[in-house]
Amino acid sequence: MSALAEPGPEGRAVRPAPLSAWLRGVLIHGAFFLAVIGTYSLALVLDPGLRRFLPTIGELLQALAGLAVDPQFWSGVGATAKAAGLGLAISMVGGSLVALLLATSTRVYDSARFLIDFLRTIPPLALIPVGLLLLGPTTRMEVTLIVASAVWPVVLQVYYGIVHLDPKYLETARSYRVGRLLQIVFIVAPGVAPSFGTAFRLAASMTLLLAVGTELLAGSDGLGFLIGWYQQARRLPEMYATIIVVGVLGIALNAAIRSAERRLFAWAEETR
Amino acid sequence: MNAGNVMRRLFVSAWMALVFITVIWIATTQIRSPFFPPLPIVLTSFSNTWFGAGFMEHVVPSMINLGAGLAAALALGLGLGVALASFPLANALVNPYAQFLRALPGVALLPLMLMLMGTNDGSKITLIAFGALWPILLNTIDGIRSIAPEQRDSARAYRVTPFNVVFRVLLPGAFPRITVGIRLSISIALVLMVGSEYYGATHGIGFYVLQAKQTFKTADMWSGVLLLGLIGYVLTTAYSAIERRILRWRPTDDR
After folding, report:
1. What's the CA gap between A223 and B199, in Å, rounded?
2. pLDDT (tens digit per residue) in A157-194
3. Which of A148, B38, B63, B181 could be a cystine partner for B139, CB 3.0 to 4.6 Å?
C-alpha cells in the first residue's frame, strides 16, 4: 500500500537524486523499452499479416538511416522549420502587440473580447480550404494559417501577464519618478516574461500541429506532405519514420522550452 | 444592476463585433471578388444548407464522431489515469511514451488511420479518441498524484471501499486538473474532426467545405467555415460555463 503514500508532484525534486538512483532509472526504462520492442517484434513474427501495415524494427531503423541521408527529407525538414519558425515569430510579435493594445484599458478588452473569443475558437485547420483558395499550396498560405491559430494563445497569455502585474511595483516606481521607459524595461518586461514563456510554449506546439496539418492536407512542402506522400507510395517504413521524427520534434521542442522556462523564470512563484 | 447598466455592458461587449460584421458586409458587397462573396449570400447559403439537408448529411455525422471520440477518450483517460496513478512504477514506465504521443500532432496520423481502418467513421472516431486521450490521461494522473497523502490515508484508515475511494476521493480531488485536460481535449478533438474530414472523407462539415472550395462555390465554403467557427465557439463557451459550475466549490483565487 506504499503506492498510495507516494508524494505528489510537489514532493519531488527537493534534493537531486543520487547517481545510483539515476542509473537504476535508466536500467528500468531501458529494460522496459527493450520489452516493448521485443513484444512488438514477436507479434510481427507470430502474425505475419500485420506486416502489411507495420514495419519491423529493422525496416524502421533502415528507413530512419535512409532518411538521414535523403536530401528530399532534409528539404522537407527545412520547409517545415521555415514555415513554423516564421509563423511562430509573427504570432509572438503580433500577439504581444495585440495584448499590449488590449491591456491599455479594461474598456478595450471588454469591447474586443467577444470578437477574440470567436476568432480563437475557430478550429485550426478549418481555414485550410480558404487558405488554399486564396493563396494556393504555398509557404505563405502555411504561415498565414499558422498565425491565424497560434496568435491567440499569445494574445491571451501576454494579456493576462500584463493585467496581473502587481500594481505596487509600478506605484513605487512612479513615486520615485522612474521614467516610463525604465518602468517598461525593469518592471513590465520582467513581470510579463514568464507569461511570454508560457505563450511561446503553447504557440510552438500549436505551430507544429498547424504546419504538419497544412502540409499534409493542403500539400505545401514539408514533413506533413512527406507523410502523406510516403503512404501513397506505399513506403510504409519511411512513413512511420517521418511520423516518429515529427513526434520527437514535438517533444524536444516542448522539453527545451520548458527547461528554458524553468531556468529563466525560476524566480517567478510558479512555472505554469 | 439596473436596466441601463445592463444595456451599457451589452453595448460595450458587442459593438466591436457589430462593427466588424458591418465592415465585412459592406466590403464584400462592394468589392465583388469571387473569393469573398457578399455576406448576405453567405448567410443565405448558411441557412439553406445548415437548416436544410446539410444538417443531417454533414453536421450530424461530424457531431457524432466528435462526441463518440471525446466520450471514448474520457472513459479511457479517467480509467487508465486512476489505474496508472495507483501504480507508480507502471506510471513511471509508461509516462515517456504517453508524453511522446501527446506531443505528436494527431493530424500526422491521418494517412496511417486511412491505411489501417479505411475512410469510415470508425477510423475518424478512433483518431479523435486517440488525440483527445492524452491530455485527459496525463492530467488525471497528475491530479490524483497531487492529492494530499493525508486524504488518502484517512480514507484508508476509515476503510472506505475502493469504489468510494475512486469516486469520492481520487476523481473529485483530481477534478480541477481533469477539467483542464478535458478543455485541451475538446480543442484537439475539434481539430481532428475537421482534419479527418479533409482527408479521404465522403461526408462531414469539413468535407462539405473542401468540396465547396474545389467546385468554387465560395459562398458555400464560407458558410461552412462560419459553421465550424460557431461550433468551436459554442463548445468552448459551454464547456467553460460547465467547468465554472462544477468547480464552484473551489476558492476562486487559484483558478
Report:
1. 16
2. 999 988 888 888 888 888 888 888 888 888 888 888 88
3. B181
Q: Is the ipTM of this complex over 0.90?
A: no
Please say if the pLDDT value at position B96 is more than 70: yes
Cβ-based contacts of B142 with chain A (< 8 Å): 9
What secondary structure does DSSP assign to A43-73, as a single string? HHHH-GGGGGT---HHHHHHHHHHHHT-HHH
Contact: A8, B96; criterion CB under 8 Å: no
- pLDDT category of residue A7 using cuts at 50, 70 and 90: very low
pLDDT at A16: 62
Residue type at A131?
G
pLDDT in tens, A101-127: 898 888 888 888 888 988 888 888 889
- How many Å lie between the alpha carbon of A129 and the closest alpha carbon of chain B? 6
Residue B135 near chain A (CB below 8 Å): no
**Given a cut of 50, is residue B255 above it in pLDDT?**
no
Separation of alpha carbons A86 and A242, rounded Å: 22
Rounded to whole angstroms, the Cα distance separating B110 from B224 reads 22
Among the listed residues B45, B29, B31, the one whose alpha carbon sits nearest the alpha carbon of residue B221:
B45
Which residues in B lie closer than 8 A to residue A251 (C-beta atoms)? 99-100, 103-104
Which residues in chain B touch residue A250, judged by CB atoms under 8 angstroms apart? Answer: 103-105
pTM score of the predicted model = 0.86
Rounded-to-integer distance, Cα B82 and Cα B142, Å: 10
